[in-house]
Amino acid sequence: MCGYIQGLPAGGDTAGIFFTRWITHFVAPAFCFLAGTGAFLHGRKLGDQGLLSRFLITRGLLLVLLELTVIRVLWTFNVDFAHYNLAGVIWMLGWCMVLLAGLVRFSTKTITLVGLVVIFAQQLVAVPTFAMSESVKQSVGWIWQFLYFGGPVDSTPPIAVLYSIVPWIGVMAVGYAFGSVMLLDAAARRRTCLRIGLGATAVFVVIAGLMVLIRPAPADATPALFRFLGQQKYPASQLFLLMTLGPIIALLPVAERANGWMSDALAVFGRVPLFYYLLHIPLIHTLALAVSLVRTGSVTPWLFGNHPMQPPPQPDGYMWSLGLLYMVFVVAVVMLYVPCQWYMHVKARHKDTWLRFL
Fold first, then answer.
1. Nearest CA to 207 among 233, 238, 246?
2. Does pTM surpass 0.70?
3. Tens digits of per-residue pLDDT, 165-179?
4. Can you tell me the distance from the alpha carbon of 4 to that of 114, in angstroms, rounded to the nearest whole number?
5. Which residues have C-beta within 8 Å of that of residue 110, sequence separation ≥ 6?
6. Distance in angstroms (rounded) separating the CA atoms of residues 295 and 277
7. In the chain, fewer beta carbons within 10 Å around the N or the C end?
């Protein structure tokens, strides 16, 4: 998100910009995978798959509604719903939860198999579109945009699909099955996390490395390391998911044993992730308005455009330095700690109310 608000491009041939963007790639896979794991553990507490299904459907539809209303306004600070709507990461998580509600009645092995097939055979979803005529694509092609391709959908009102359902439902399904690993004793759990995480990372390194070595690089190609790490995110390719989920799973034992003030602070955000997400977008957007006012003496209308997918042309000279970006990031995180800590305690005191959905 910061890449759109302060004007830095999503990628780039400088290490600072590239790795600032690259590290954010781990967020969506972690959210989706661990949402599945959380659903598994929540189902164990409920002791009833029917109750879990209803919970997932209710929470999933709530997330979709939030994406199309509150979050859309927070991204843009405008209410031009007639020309721009966003199907972003919260939209994707919501629909994946609704679909997961139908999968939880099957065995863990079956859910694992379904998830892996969706991830590693994801391109098969696009096969029917190859046989469609242009007239058919114009009438039903939007289904595949929501399902896999993404991009602007020519509808009324129009909607821009940033996160498609495939392969993310596979990620959430595998995350759900991974919940059984979390029930193992500590030593076995750590061994299993390391085996899965390091194994996935090793597969990524070998395949992505070979592709960089084998594919001829054009004269204006970015450095080999950037091509190695610059995997396709929209829709998320198999290599992208191996690159991100492998380290996430491998580092779970480290996170489990972490202690001290830093881990305690991060735990606060981790206990209220959706609350943090809903607050951080308007906060960073507001901070961007303040920075614009300080730097130029006025607030640029660009900050009220249709971010993040269809922003207007960036004003000349608006781009931030990385130093300013990181300073605003730190300020935002510090400012969010107190409200997140407050909400964590409120949520803990009211576990059986509607607050459990947030």
1. 238
2. yes
3. 999 999 999 999 999
4. 35
5. none
6. 27
7. C
